[in-house]
Predict the 3D structure of the following.
Amino acid sequence: MIADLLRAAWRTPGGRAGLVFLVFLVLLALLGPLVLPDPFQQFDLVELQSAPPSGPHPFGTDQLSRDVLSRVVNGARVSLAVAGIAVALSVTLGAVVGLVAGYLGGGVDAVLMRLVDGAMAVPRLFLLLVVLAVASRVPLAVLIVLIGTTGWFATSRLIRAEALRLREETYVRAAEALGASRRRIIFRHLLVNTAGPLLVAATLGVGDVILLEAGLSFLGLGVQPPTPSWGGMILDARPVLESAPWVGIFPGVMITLTVLATNLVGDALRDALDPRGA
Amino acid sequence: MTRVLDVRDLRISFPAPGGGRFHPVDGVSFTLDRGETLALVGESGCGKSLTSLALLRLVPPPGRIDPASVIRLRDTDVLALEGEAPRQVRGRRIGMIFQDPMTSLNPVFTVGDQIAEGVRAHLRVTKAEARERARGLLQEVGIPDPAERLDAYPHQLSGGMRQRVMIAIALSAEPEILVADEPTTALDVTVQAQILEVLDQLRRTRGMAVLLITHDLGIVAGRADRVAVMYAGQIVEEATTADLFARPSHPYTQGLFASVPRISGPVQRLTPIRGTVPPPTAWPTGCRFRPRCPQAFEKSEQPPELLPVGPGHRIRCWLAERAAAPSGSATR
């Protein structure tokens, strides 16, 4: 099912462009640091200054003489890891809550969905800002958990609607008539049949989380230096934006392209999932 | 004959929109013996499918089975099972197949996986044994190349093949009773006959009891031992199949036969039953067929019991009293 969806997304120009970029980015994040100069080994203590793009430094160097290209690639690693793990967490939570609420219905559904309604009324960004500002210098793992546990509410509603539809399917009733347990029906029969919507939610979620993490890091509340992140690099670039614009432009372009790519892929997947809604 | 199923006075209620409760199934009783096929015949909305779901304790909420009802599976009191216990009946004691084979199989799992799931849900066997059993079951329901079909996905099979797979799944835990809810309605006529033949063969070879639920009198003939005709939540006539076809005695059954076209004999206009089935929220008082019945008389205003009109042949109609009276003996 997932393979079919990806194939369908590949057939659209936007989906193909997005997939190509994302695959390239993931390979870059995985393999790039192995071939690129280590940004931490780049300190040129004699000439501690930002240099414009040149042969040895295609993206230039920042005010600490660190190679911007290496920092962008290492930042991709961090940003993608944060987004990937946080989205995996939120999609899992959203799927479990949505499937349980939708399949069991009744009181369980009412309680879970009212909780979700309440949680959705809290602005996520401000909640994160408050928590991060109070805690100050939060480890990366905690940041990921915070982002992941605040991002599943919309997914749970989407998956609940799917579960409401699927539980009326004859094959679900047939599984019940065969004596399957509720857990088995939820996590075998329903879960695999919601793989499509989950993939769409995850893809679009990655773009959201990259933006969110970049915003938080730009405010100095997200990924903490010296760990490179795109948002943090733009923060570092702010004082030298006029004299050395390349320090901020390249991470900014990466954020934009990455989010654009995830949105293109997400839209293509959604259209593939529901051709009528296109 | 061993009695495997005894349903007595089954009543199922749902909350009525204006308060109170209404009964889509209202006092249904029947029995099923080993190796026997009982057909439950009736129009949509007569309560036949709900009756079959009650056997598995799968009446959808907010529906409720009346506590005075009895469903006895050999020595198991099905309605007394609590918590997870009803699952021991589903699939293991009673297997069920549904109307539409196109939607009864999960599209994302292979046929073999889905049969093996039923096997492993109830029987303690290894994965390899479950797969081997699945292959055997596919063979038993007449699927060619069963070993290769195990790895097929549902969309690769025709409707008739899928219904055979459904039967194999229903058989996977070796139930004593097979409930077939409109098993052939969605299929071509030629495929219908094949599926019914498979069911009949399984009944003979496995000694299973079959509850065949249908609206089609045509598939009852020659397949069922006995027939129970349902109307408005009640059984209105029960008889052996031969008896029912020779002497349909309830006016509703007679109406059903009059609305079936005949292949032999002179071409006649079909006589439909006038009016429509009343909704379960508004069953008529007295005899429930009274507003549509061409033979209704004064006594029809009182609710009739099932009354005998011959050996093993009963109708829920006061006409039975007339027939039994000496003056009516000429009709015999």
Notes: Chain A touches chain B through 21 residues (CB under 8 Å). DSSP finds twelve helices and no strands in chain A. The mean pLDDT of chain A is 83.
